[in-house]
Amino acid sequence: MKCVSAKMVQRKNAIYLEKYCTIHGSQTELLEEDADYFIKRRGFDKPGTDCRRQTKTKKGCPFDCGLCPQHAQHTCIGLIEVTNTCDLRCPMCYAASGVGEFLSLEVIERMMNVYIDSEFEPPEILQISGGEPTLHPNILEIIDLGRKKGFKYVMLNTNGLRLAKDEEFVRKLAAFDRGFEVYLQFDGLNPKALRRLRGKDVGAEKKRAIERLTHHRIPTTLVATIAHGVNDGDIGAIVKLGLDIPGIRGVNFQPMAFFGRMPDKVSTQERITLTGIIQRIEEQTEGLLQKSDFVPLPCDVDRVALTYLRKEKMGKWIPLPREIDLRQFVPAIKNTFAFALDDAIDIKAARGCDCFKGPLRLMNLLADTALLRTLQQRAKYLNENLFRISITSFLDAYNFDLKAMQKECVHVITPDGRKIPFSAYNMIHRKAV
Ligand code: SF4
Ligand code: SF4
Question: How far is the CA of 67 from the centre of ligand 1 (A)?
């Protein structure tokens, strides 16, 4: 695999990458479906946060992962794949998971230490992933270890099948309480789409997993992989379902990338982009959300967009950017992929902003939560009254953009002690690739 230079061109309101390779010839790739957002997002860009590096610059990006000295962002989410065993065989699986091995607790602890040692401040989010991590015989000990190591959040990235059938396991997860969250794979409930993405209709299992998680009050984010022409018509329904279920803290949409078990992409029409998902959210939520409600995450403007909604007393949801101009907060928004609003905003820095009107309104909003006495009351308030919608896009061999890659903040921790940006890992560094 080689990098080729490319230029970005705008046609109508979309942005394309145009490139030429001496072996494969000319290629045009859809980069974003909304040029206005693409252009405006630069206004949110912030320099990255430094961290310790594990490799040296030798062959150049993206072959030196990592992190190498060229990388421009610390780790917002450190991901440990504890197994490549899985009880599904999703046709779109990035990891091409199936029958595999389980990492030992000793190796997993070493990987957690790599993450901790590389950050100059306490690390934020540890994501336990796979394969299907709930199949690991020591999964509860792994989560417990992550919490004891002091990660602010430990997330379990699961397809939910074990949660659907093993209530005792869910009860044990609930005991982890604050700082533990489930990232539940949920691509909607359309049987045809589920068969295409997951190999079978797993809708009933997903519903049961959600019932169990909410019954045991485990904070949960629904994670939807969106494929063009498969489930991009279900985006609005997924948002509404999340908003209607107390205990669901948010939805994360991921435009499908072309690596792993996915066959080679044949046409640019098959791609859906970050801005394409925002457009469909506007089209499919009947005025509840608009494109202008979404802002780029300053630590990674190319790949992450998000919004928060606040629940009013009558149960109506209001997107926060309609009440507060979040651009005023760019200096105060931390380089983090935090879950709660008060994690994401540095309150002291927000107070120092030139324009007081917006920050004061934000402070008033957060003061509601600060007045609640116990951590449990505060967590409950945030769970029930804030909802986050985020979109995270990945880079594959077709839409590869070196500058965006170097800002990527979701890093896979490898057993040999490296941290590799998620897209680079799936594109070239994963063993099976
Ligand atoms: S993606 Fe980041 S870590 Fe990997 S080679 Fe490029 S700059 Fe280095
Ligand atoms: S995408 Fe997830 S659930 Fe599906 S096969 Fe891969 S690891 Fe398993």
Answer: 6
